[in-house]
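Readers outside the structure-tokenisation community will struggle with the description of the input data as it stands. What matters is that the chain and its backbone geometry are given together, residue for residue. For illustration, here is how one protein appears when written out as sequence plus structure tokens:

…
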Amino acid sequence: TNKAFGGGGIYVNGYDFDGFKNGHLYITNVVISDNEAKRQGGGYASCPISNTEIYLKQGAAIYGNRASSAKDIFIYSATIGFGAHGGNPKYFITDTMLGGVPYHWKYNDGTEVPLNKLNGTLLGEGVSLSIYTDEVGNATTQSLAKVFITGNYSATRGGGIGSNGNVTIGRKDGPLPETECSVKKVWDDNYDEKGIRPESIEIELWRKIAGSSDDPIYIGYETIKPDANGDWSLKFTGLLKEDGLGNQYEYIIKERKIFGYVADITKDEISGHVITNSYEPDTVSVEGKKTWEDDDDIVGHRPGSITIRLLKNGVEIDHRVVTDKDDWSWSFTNLPKYENGQLIKYTITEDPVKWYDTVIEGYNVTNYCIDPPEPVPDTGDLNHIIWIMMMGASLTAMVWLIVYQKKEIKIN
């Protein structure tokens, strides 16, 4: 089709003006995949007067579509130049596809879409919600699907579905039980004493089968900002309570790192998840290096390893065994800087090294070889002379013995 929001597979007509009403498409258990649009919305595209609802229950799996941008979903807001088709569309898009696979929706630039940006009213001129997913459906997706919208093409927008009317995919209410997950933020920072408390925080939602040893699956994140009363709270709603086999889900909350803070997360039936942030303790590192003063180990006394011990206010708390493979260097990291409000003093010692004196300067150590003996000269030539002298003496003795025996014979 060549219409602005014509739709390659399905087109929903709409004209909400002067007694006319938008057309409304209701569809359930659908896979929208492998469609293409020349411009935006390879899977689905809607114009400014088209309201969109895509629910989890008996909903859709929208993935693997192609377009110049907004590969899977494109929703557009504008009034100028659109006449009766101008408006600010309302939308709701589930975070999980048919079959239970999290979408992990992304914007065109590849950044993640916060969960709380998947529903609302699109405001502004020429503003769009342009998203896609890298995920794909699973075997459960295929078994639940009753309708397949695939292999379609639009010369404009909406390769799978293009809409000037209203679209409802899935059911807002249905047989799958839902649950919710509440989060409350508490700041333990003496009323932002250091002045580093952020204006907003990001909370991640994870899910796994309750009681299983499986790693949790990441669902998405939302942003929390304080309300007019300074309350930091959030509620994830419309969450699946169980999988298709009746197994209960467990939801886990994580907080993305906040500079200068550490987080402690607790959970109970009344308060839900409570995240308490306190200042990250100041830390220091102790790093040192060994220097050998022994003429490159000329006498062979240098050991294969040394032991460096770390002391905190004079009491040993750690040690390192250091070798040539470590370049005779060591480090102790993430050490608390203060204790009970007092600066901690860190020092090091070295276990005695035979044949060496030790000098410690700060966290560096120098070892001096103790009075190395004079090198023993090569005695090869001296031994040769001694051998010759001994051989000469032996020959002299033999000659003398022969002469003496001859004299004895003559006398007799």
Observations:
- DSSP finds two helices and 32 strands in the chain.
